[in-house]
Amino acid sequence: MSPRILPRGRRAWVSAAAGAALVLVAALVVHLWPEPAYPGMKGDCDRSELFVVGGTDVSLKNQRRALIRQWNEGRDAGGRPHPHATLVEVSESTDLQHSQIKAVEEAGGCAYDVLIMDNTWTAQFADSGYLRPLDGIRDQDDFFPAALRTGKRDGELYAVPFNVDVGLLYYREGVTPPSAWPGLVSSDVAMQLADYEGLTVNALEAVWNDGGAGRLTGEDRPSEDDLRTKVYPALARLAPRAHGTLAPSRQYGELESIEAFASGTKLMRNWPYAFSALASEPRMRKGARLRFGVTALPGHTVLGGQNLAVSKHSPNPGDAADLVAFLSGTGSQRLLFSCGGFAPGRYSALGLSPGHSSPADVKVQACSSLTGQPLGPGETDVPDANQLAQLGRAVVTALGRAEPRPVTPHYSTFTSTFRGCVQKIFDRAGTDAESFAEAVERSLDGRTASC
């Protein structure tokens, strides 16, 4: 059986500026809201079916859906069919995903069994009692340590990596990528500076690479003095760029950045999934050769990504944990990478031994060799194994420079406050270092604040 995708009206989004370009990517971006009539949402907890909730599947050719299909067609170690799983796609917006999932969990509803969560949610969801500890996950040393830590709270494992995100630098053919941060922000580069989580990510990377390294990351709380003297000045120095070379990026999310890059922008900061999307775009290919390259972002990057967790209110926690183990396993991670373009959370998915992170040793397979589906006459893997290896090397290099966003159960309050302050700094709206430091410090405690 194939997975059922439960929409309540689809709204396809295609930028007018994009026109017919990047049709493949645009076709993947749809709003899929949970249908309130399905058993879990109606409060029907006496069920064997599993419901997996997350954002819109933007992987190339919907590989998350393909994994759910594989699960539904498979059997357990005793030869019994797996309980059927249904994928509930909420939205491409991280903020909307958070609001929808949190509302159901807060109400104690049994609508969801497996949660696909942004890795910043662990502290809040664990502290609020929304998650079950994961006690049966094997080969934990095979996960990239930094990624696995995002699923832990107070020493307990509540979530495991589904896919890892790190900032990568894409460059057009013939362009030499800058090796240092100042050269990047002064170049013709597309970043993500629109008013959403991407602004928080890009602003944190700017801070860490311009005098604020080690601030606003992980569980260490910055002092107000650090916020005044290290974080604020870095953002203030970026403000002129926001009115110059980076002005177009203030309207860009991930997809708008991809379109700008495909249309001629020389450089782009984006996540790993952009690689496969661009490799499939005719403007970015010349025969089998790609007309772009990818490398690690210079300096520090945000460690993003999504984790898998079991809802505390799942009526089938054992089966849900088995599904988490399947989705986070090496085979699933390889498929997500080679066929979907998502960076894996395991060493083994990139042909590396646990703890061994040399980019030169990355070994990957092309999609067709994993799926066993033969290519037609004249068809080739897009991207092929060599091109995927380039992406894998960039990911491993970037992981060595990656830092988590602030770990706090009040992350949603922090990020909305922080990016509001960043916008005011960019707009030169009178925000000073003192008010910035006070607002950000309050937001980390969940207190409402603004610059």
Comma- or semicolon-separated keywords:
alpha/beta; 451 residues; D-Maltodextrin-Binding Protein, domain 2; 2 domains; 7-stranded mixed sheet; globular
Question: How would you describe the overall organization of this protein?
Answer:
With 451 residues, the chain is α/β, with parallel strands linked by helices. It has two domains: 11-165 and 304-349, D-Maltodextrin-Binding Protein, domain 2; 166-302 and 405-443, D-Maltodextrin-Binding Protein, domain 2 (3-Layer(aba) Sandwich), CATH 3.40.190.10. Helix content is 36%, strand content 15%. Strands 3, 4, 5, 6, 9, 16 and 17 form a seven-stranded mixed sheet that branches. A four-stranded mixed sheet has the order 11-12-10-15. Strands 1-2 form a two-stranded antiparallel sheet. Helix 15 runs antiparallel to helix 16. The longest helix is centred in the middle third of the chain and has 19 residues, at 224-242. It is globular, with a radius of gyration of 21 Å.
